[in-house]
Amino acid sequence: MPTSLFNKASILACSYKQHNSLIGPIAQPIDYLIQSTSKLTSDGTKNKTKKDQHFVKAAKFPKAPQKDQCCGSGCPNCVWLQYVDNVLDYVKSLPLDEKVVEEQKRHIRDELERNVPDDNLRMFLTIEIESKGL
Q: What is the residue range of the signal peptide feature (predicted)?
């Protein structure tokens, strides 16, 4: 066995034994990642707090893109189509029953009227939202 290959193998073996493997994101040792995730899952209150924080962040209606962010050429990855996806994610995060779909639609229409001043664009967004399942 060549010496350089032997040295690499012994370094990997030593790293494994000492838990200093740098395979985690941003070069964090893997044992650090295991400890941090186990702390989150073993403590129910921290996990619940994380979910509550995520819900609070998702509870804001998404901000509409600026007019100058759209080129108007009908791109398949238009900022307005991304906005529609964000609105749908917002609606899915609301704590509403399935029986109140009309209330959701009315809420979306009201928010779009507040956030999107152009009538044609607002109608386009409404059609896109309806075509994606709401």
A: none
Which residue, chain included where needed, has tokens 């941003």?
26
Distance of alpha carbon 52 from alpha carbon 29, whole angstroms: 29
Average pLDDT, integer, range 80-93: 84
Q: pLDDT at residue 116 above 70?
A: yes
This prediction has a pTM of: 0.47
| Whole-angstrom distance, CA of residue 14 vs CA of residue 1 | 18
Residue 3 pLDDT level (bands cut at 50, 70, 90): low
In a 13 Å sphere around the CA of 91, the CA atoms on its Cβ side amount to 25
Q: State both tokens at 2.
A: 């060549």
**What per-residue confidence (pLDDT) applies to 104?**
77
CA atoms within 13 A on the CB side of 22: 3
3-class SS letters over 20-76: CCCCCHHHCCHHHHHHHHHHHHHCHHHHHHHHHHHHHHHCCCCCCCCHHHCCCCCCC
Q: Which residues contact 45 (CB under 8 A, 6 or more apart)?
A: none
